[in-house]
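Dear H.,

Thanks for agreeing to be a second pair of eyes. The structure we're designing against is below in token form, covering all 235 positions.
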């Protein structure tokens, strides 16, 4: 099978690129501060938090067989910006990535060895699983099973009204004076509905989906539907 990568929903072959070398799976590095203590051997290490990692760099070595045709097919737009990055080493999801190096297209146009170049992506460290992007309609008491050992930051959308108590695992969120519904984006730390911010209608921390099984339940108010997009992530 030919190597490839897909960036912003565009495959390399559609812009005339041949991938000659791909990165292996990289385990992100935990974000740790090391402090030297006078008079003491070694150093103290302090982690910034649970599941806090540094970005990773993924390099792809490419070859451009027909530069003029590639430029006509959108090579310039393809090799810049940010978006979802997929590649066959990890076929079950994607990284959130940004192109960080400037590819010198004029050198590619002049041909020969200059047609070989490397595209470097700076990626958020946690790999997003496709199965975690699917919204799941739940009933009160439903258990969601995390397939990884990393806590997930879900999107929870509640259609309903009144004062609602949401319980996710052992975490309690109080939702007050809800009119039509509320969405809790636990990744962005925002509560909203229909474009209106509703952070002042909730109290408590934005809940996480822990490792293993997490129960989701609620009480109070009038709730007609709860949909959870779990956003499972892995190292």
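And this is the sequence the design step returned. I haven't edited it by hand at all.
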């Amino acid at each position: 099978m030919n190597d490839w990568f897909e960036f912003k929903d565009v495959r390399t072959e559609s812009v005339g690129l041949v991938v000659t070398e791909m990165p292996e799976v990289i385990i992100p590095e935990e974000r740790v501060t090391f402090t030297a203590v006078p008079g003491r051997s070694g150093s103290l290490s302090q982690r910034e938090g649970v599941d806090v990692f540094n970005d990773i760099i993924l390099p792809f070595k490419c070859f451009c067989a027909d530069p003029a045709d590639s430029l006509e097919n959108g090579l310039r737009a393809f090799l810049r910006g940010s978006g979802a990055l997929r590649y066959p080493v990890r076929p079950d999801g994607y990284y959130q990535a940004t192109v960080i190096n400037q590819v010198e297209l004029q050198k590619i146009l002049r041909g020969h060895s200059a047609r070989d170049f490397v595209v470097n992506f700076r990626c958020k460290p946690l790999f997003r699983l496709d199965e975690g992007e699917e919204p799941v309609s739940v009933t009160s008491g439903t258990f969601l099973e995390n397939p990884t050992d990393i806590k997930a930051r879900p999107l929870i959308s509640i259609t309903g009204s009144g004062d609602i108590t949401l319980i996710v695992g052992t975490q309690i969120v109080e939702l007050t004076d809800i009119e039509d519904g509320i969405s809790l984006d636990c990744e962005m730390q925002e509560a909203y509905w229909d474009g209106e911010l509703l952070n002042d209608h909730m109290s408590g921390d934005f809940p996480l989906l822990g490792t293993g099984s997490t129960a989701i339940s609620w009480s109070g108010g009038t709730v007609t539907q709860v949909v959870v997009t779990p956003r499972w992530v892995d190292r």
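Two observations from my side: The longest helix spans residues 67-72. The two ends are 25 Å apart (CA to CA).

Warmly,
E.
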